[in-house]
Request: fold
Amino acid sequence: MAADYSHITREEVLEQWGIWKELREEFKKFDMYSCLGNHDMWWAAPDKTDSMYGKNYVLDKVEMPFRYYSFAKNGWHFIVLDSNNKNAGSLDQEQRIWLENELNRIPPGSPVLVMTHYPILAVSTIPYGGNHTDSKYITKLFHKHQDKKIHCISGHMHLLDTAVYNNVNYYCNGSMSGFWWGDGDGESAKKGWYHETPPGYSIIDFYDDGTLKNTYYPNIY
Reply:
């Protein structure tokens, strides 16, 4: 279920968050850092004053400090962005200013991982769309910070691809739901696949030299 569809009811949203809470308990020993996706928000609430409307309700449920944020761990800098703005797949002006300042304060030579839901730059978006609409702005900003080792990960497409542009690595990973938990259609390479990508998840290994390894594990459900 996607909470952003107009026909979704309050009861359905609450049911899904209940499932999320149960699953989160099983992994509570692990730190969790979430990134807002386009299907997370319930825009069909009766009005904007409803406590379940929009982003703030989701931020509370997944315990995010803000819709975009950063943190550092074991020598790596992590930047989590909110792609869900006007012209879907874009950064608002407030977030642009914050990102510019954030990159400026990171020391030269530092490894950086940028997380977005919509791909900033991808191969799969060429035939299917879904790219950040402001990718030109973001890629030019990254080019100003060639003194850092920048990598990017995203989702949204349910497709798996890797791109390299100006020495920045862009990893677009598939989805656990594959063809939205369905069997697929005439363009699915196999049952449950979205085009040529099977349902699955990624595990990323981070190295002290600023490199990383993004490994995708197909999932059979």
Summary: Residues 65-218 form a domain with the Transcription Regulator spoIIAA fold (CATH 3.30.750.180). The first strand starts at residue 69 and ends at 73. The mean pLDDT is 95.
